[in-house]
Specification:
2 helices
């Protein structure tokens, strides 16, 4: 049985800070990784409550054995396919509109 402290540690949100092309930093909660068509994608939720109506999906690109970067996705079909996989995995946890 988990006590409150153990529960908080086990379910603590992983926060990722990303920097855009203009150098602006923004925090996101990491939700999941999804494999699709030979690529890996991350699904993120903005920490800012005003923007929590949409997730962000980015493609993971390895720079070397230890570092990776994330790239935006222009292909709407890929975005939808990755989001559909995510929705299917978490249909019991989230209320998708």
């Amino acid at each position: 049985m988990l006590n409150n402290e153990d529960f908080a540690e086990e379910y603590e949100a992983e926060i990722i800070t990303l920097e855009d092309d203009l150098g602006n930093e923004k925090d996101f909660e990491f939700l999941d990784t999804v494999e699709y068509d030979g690529d890996e994608y991350i699904v993120l939720l903005p920490v800012d409550e005003d923007e929590q109506d949409e997730v962000m999906i980015l493609r993971v690109e390895s720079l070397n054995d230890e570092d990776e970067t994330y790239a935006g996705i222009d292909d709407e079909e890929v975005l939808q396919a990755v989001f559909d996989i995510f929705k299917d995995r978490y249909k019991d946890d989230y209320d998708f509109e």
